[in-house]
Amino acid sequence: MNVKDGVKTKGEARPGTRPAGEVIAQLRRAEPQPLDVPLKKNDFASDQEVRWCPGCGDYAILNAVQTILPDLGIPRERFVMISGIGCSSRFPYYMNAYGIHSIHGRGPALATGLKTARPDLSVWVATGDGDALSIGGNHFIHMLRRNVDVKILLFNNRIYGLTKGQYSPTSEFGKITKSSPVGSPDRPFNPLALALGANATFVARSVDRFQPHLRATLKAAAMHKGAAFVEILQNCNIYNDGAWEHVTELEVRDDHTLVLEEGKPLIFGKKGCKGIRLAKDRLEVVDLGNGVSEESLLAHDPTRDDPAMAMMLAHMEDLPGHTVNQWPVPIGILRRVENPTYETVVQQQIQAARAKMDIPSLQELLEAGDTWEVGS
Questions:
Q1: Which domains does the chain have, with CATH numbers?
Q2: Contact assessment for residue 359 and residue 10, using Cβ atoms and an 8 Å cutoff
């Protein structure tokens, strides 16, 4: 609208221009175009020197992410990597994509805002057990419960590495560190259980050293429509070396890990000699043979709407009386269900509100409603 002789009149946009709202709406609706030249792993490697400690598990995670992103068929400029503070939070520097290195624990908050404003982007959060589960705990759980379509990678090394070895929210009870010289008095968080408690629609776990499994898990998370949480068991060889050796070492890993596969019975152990079945209201470990068959075991179904079974799996190795020598550590996808995403609902609300308003331009919006004159 223009104002002429004190009367508001409809105005025309400048030749060759469109209302800003129309342009923004088109950007939000835009779908990634097919790539003329397929991307490769090296296309996602930045020119920055990777500066983690030699032998750090973060290298393996970076390798896995850079390996699977080309398979998604998304242009590189549509990826955004967001982090907070910590060793894991250097991740955006090493990715040849858009990135935000934010403040401690606030990566999920920035990711929520960005995905809501630009749902066409593929938004990822790289975080650690301290960054996500301590100062960032509220942002983390609310992003999950809202089901924002963001991929959250939690590097869990059970220690504060960047600040030189203090106990973290996932450190074991009684753990001796620089900040707990007589043992940690805290009960640790179980990241999987926390995500399930927030009703996350995709919850999974993998291990830095298990590269084929890690890549498959990350790709499944990337394909999921909604908040996808992946806990990655990662070694800090400087301040917490061997934190997951009961899972990673060749001599014991078959007995101590349970690989979750959809539709398959829960079997683990060397030569697949052990299984897990449901006994009334709890899980139990059984030896196969002597009348105990695979048919009696629990078959994994991550698509259950009820998260109760996933929660039981998440807690297998940390319930009172359970030890890693008896109960395995589950890896794989614990839960994968469909729910409307936060940004989709918000965009629908915006479109519905716009449809009810007869304000086609920013100028008309500024001149709408009550107006007044200020006398001299």
A1: 34-243+340-376 (3.40.50.970), 262-330 (no CATH)
A2: no
